[in-house]
Design brief:
This protein has 157 residues and is mainly α. The chain contains six helices and two strands. Helix 1 crosses helix 2, helix 3 (41-52) runs antiparallel to helix 4 and helix 5 (120-138) packs antiparallel against helix 6 (143-152). 6% of the residues are buried.
Length: 157
């Protein structure tokens, strides 16, 4: 595990400890103490453009306000960030795919059978995985309740 991952684990461990639980053992805490944070991915992408931009034939120029979208920095902004948002289980990334406000149980807004979509099937497993993590670490909700919530989120079109 790299420095940044160890650092993030230590931050999570300290946050979880506020609730009376632990994530890391003493050896892992010692190993993570002093771990360095990586620069932001946007900074790393810009550094790639700066270093390789003049060395690669056909590499897009980075000039102008923000540079073109085919640079590493541009690709990071327009492809990686939106595409990876659901991988980080940020609740707001589920917003377009479900009925969340004033609806109980929460349901996935599945497109009609004629409307192709690769996104809606990911919402329920992502949400269920977050609940499984809560069950694993906090013993809440129960495994049966996780299944019940996940099954209730599907809505027939």
């Amino acid at each position: 595990m790299g420095d940044d991952a160890r650092r993030q684990s230590l931050i999570m461990h300290r946050d979880i400890a506020k609730f009376g639980h632990t994530l890391l053992n003493e050896r892992q805490i010692a190993n993570a103490t002093g771990a360095k944070q990586l620069p932001k991915l946007s900074q790393l992408a810009a550094a790639v453009d700066e270093y390789w931009g003049d060395r690669l034939i056909g590499a897009p120029e980075t000039g102008g306000a923000g540079g073109p979208t085919l640079t590493m920095r541009g690709l990071y902004t327009f492809i990686y960030r939106p595409g990876s948002a659901t991988a980080h289980l940020q609740p707001e990334t589920l917003e377009p795919y479900g009925a969340w406000e004033n609806v109980n149980p929460k349901v996935v807004d599945r497109p009609s059978k004629d409307e192709p979509s690769i996104w809606w099937p990911q919402v329920v497993p992502l949400y269920a995985n977050a609940l499984i993590a809560c069950h694993d670490r906090l013993n809440w909700p129960s495994a049966d309740r996780v299944r019940e919530i996940a099954n209730a989120m599907y809505l027939d079109p």
